C-alpha cells in the first residue's frame, strides 16, 4: 500500500516508521507502508547488538527486495565498524542528530550515521579525523558505468547533487552549504560494498570496493554466514524472476 503525501507530512511519515519513501527529482511523492520500516525509524534508539540476529533472520526469510536495502545498510555499517575496532559490537550505536552535528562532534566514537536518501552515500562513520563514506549496492548484475556511478556517490563534492542537470538538488542548498565546511575538516576514505553476480568488479581511483571475494570475513565480527545468506537471497530472487 502507498500513502501519497508530500513535504513535511511525507517526512514525518518516514520519520515515525510508517514506511519507506518513494522519491522523484529529490522529493518524496509517496510512502510505501511496511512494518519493517519501524527498524529504520528506531535504529538510532535500538542497540545494534540486540537486533543483529533478528536482521539476519529476516534476510533468511527472503523479504521483498526493496526491504533488503535498509537491512543490508545496517549490517554493513556495523560490520565495518566492528572490523575497524574488533570487540566493539556491543558499543556501536546510530547517531540520532543531524549530519553537521555528527561531523563536528568529538563524542561520536563507535557511532555511525545514515544520511537521508537525497545525500548520496548510505553510511558515514567518523573515526577521529577520518570520515569513511560508504555506498551499499545489492544488485544482480552491474555494468562498469554503474559501478563508477556507485563510487561517485561517495564523493563529498556531489552530496545532494543532481547529476542530470549538474546542480545542487532543489531545496537542498541550505543543507549542503551547512555540511561542506565540516566535510572539509576531515580526511575522507571512500568505499563501495557490492554484492552482485557480476564477476569482474572495478572501482574508481580513490575508492575501495568490498566484495565477498575481497573480504570473505567481512561480517564475521557480527555473525558468520551472512555472505551465504546474501547468496541464497540472490538465488531466490533470480529463481522468482524465471517463474
Describe this entry's structure for a reader.
The chain starts with a strand and ends with a helix. The protein folds into two domains: 1-33, no CATH class; 46-241. The chain contains eight helices and eleven strands. The longest helix is centred in the first third of the chain and has 20 residues, at 65-84. The chain has 243 residues and is α/β, with parallel strands linked by helices. It has helices at 7-15, 37-42, 52-60, 65-84, 99-104, 144-152, 173-184, 226-242, and strands at residues 2-3, 19-24, 27-33, 93-94, 111-113, 123-127, 130-138, 161-162, 167-168, 187-195, 207-210. The radius of gyration is 17 Å and the shape is globular. It has a six-stranded mixed beta sheet with strand order 4-5-6-7-10-11.
Short overview:
The chain is an alpha/beta fold and 243 residues long. The protein has helices spanning 7-15, 37-42, 52-60, 65-84, 99-104, 144-152, 173-184, 226-242, and strands spanning 2-3, 19-24, 27-33, 93-94, 111-113, 123-127, 130-138, 161-162, 167-168, 187-195, 207-210. It has eight helices and eleven strands.
Amino acid at each position: 500500500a502507498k500513502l501519497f503525501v508530500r513535504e513535511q507530512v511525507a517526512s514525518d511519515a518516514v520519520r515515525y516508521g510508517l514506511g519507506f519513501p518513494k522519491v522523484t527529482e529529490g522529493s518524496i511523492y509517496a510512502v510505501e507502508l511496511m512494518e519493517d520500516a519501524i527498524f529504520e525509524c528506531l535504529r538510532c534508539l535500538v542497540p545494534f547488538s540486540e537486533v543483529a540476529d533478528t536482521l539476519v533472520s529476516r534476510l533468511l526469510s527472503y523479504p521483498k527486495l526493496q526491504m533488503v536495502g535498509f537491512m543490508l545498510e545496517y549490517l554493513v555499517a556495523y560490520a565495518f565498524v566492528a572490523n575497524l575496532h574488533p570487540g566493539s559490537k556491543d558499543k556501536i550505536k546510530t547517531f540520532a542528530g543531524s549530519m553537521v552535528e555528527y561531523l563536528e562532534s568529538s563524542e561520536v566514537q563507535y557511532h555511525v550515521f545514515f544520511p537521508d536518501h537525497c545525500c548520496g552515500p548510505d553510511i558515514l562513520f567518523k573515526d577521529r579525523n577520518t570520515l569513511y563514506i560508504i555506498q551499499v549496492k545489492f544488485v544482480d548484475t552491474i555494468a562498469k558505468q554503474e559501478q563508477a556511478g556507485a563510487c561517485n556517490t561517495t564523493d563529498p563534492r556531489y552530496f545532494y547533487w543532481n547529476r542530470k542537470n549538474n546542480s545542487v538538488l532543489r531545496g537542498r542548498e541550505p543543507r549542503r552549504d551547512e555540511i561542506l565546511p565540516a566535510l572539509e575538516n576531515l580526511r575522507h576514505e571512500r568505499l563501495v560494498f557490492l554484492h552482485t553476480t557480476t564477476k569482474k568488479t572495478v572501482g574508481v581511483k580513490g575508492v575501495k570496493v568490498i566484495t565477498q571475494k575481497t573480504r570473505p570475513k567481512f561480517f564475521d565480527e557480527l555473525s558468520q554466514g551472512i555472505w551465504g545468506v546474501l547468496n541464497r537471497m540472490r538465488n531466490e530472487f533470480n529463481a522468482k524472476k524465471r517463474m
